[in-house]
UniProtKB/TrEMBL annotation:
Keywords attached to this entry: Membrane, Transmembrane, Transmembrane helix
Species for this entry: Poriferisphaera corsica
Protein name: Peptidase M50 domain-containing protein
Residue spans crossing the bilayer: 20-42, 81-105, 117-138, 154-172
Amino acid sequence: MVATSYCKMTCLFLLKRYRICWRAGIGAIACLLSWWCGMMAIHELGHAWGAWLSGGSEIDIIVPAVGFSRTTIGINPQPLFVAWMGASAGCAVPLVMAIGSTIVWKRVGIMIWPQRWTLGWAGFCLLANSAYIGLGWINHIGDAGDLLRHGACIWQLVIFGLVAMSSGFWIWHQMIENRRADSR
């Protein structure tokens, strides 16, 4: 009984004392969860676009809030193209959105999406897709395994991973540097 009430008092004290950190932590988790779901949705839409462009049919996309997404294609005439389209669109679409919103904001003065959020999400998508493809060949998992089964070379996956990862880290670095410059 005493230990339980002491534990409650300690928890309440810490929550009151560090409520800003607690709120920031919840905000960070919510932000990462929304980035994760958005990244998976764009990645899977890339597979669907690839299947549609190559004449595939019976396309089923599943994007859970927590966990991993997947796209099932009944008739897939170009499986290598469809597999590449997931990671390619998963990197290109957020990047185009970030660049587009930056151009509109700088030229017109209208902020379409929150600038840092869009850039952060683009960097996150690049990093997630780069790790998925660039390291997935090691255990032949997911799309990397599909790419290898359908004729892609390991060096192509590694190059994709390196370019996307470098770009993602560069975007995050620029975002941090711009924030530092704004605070001066």
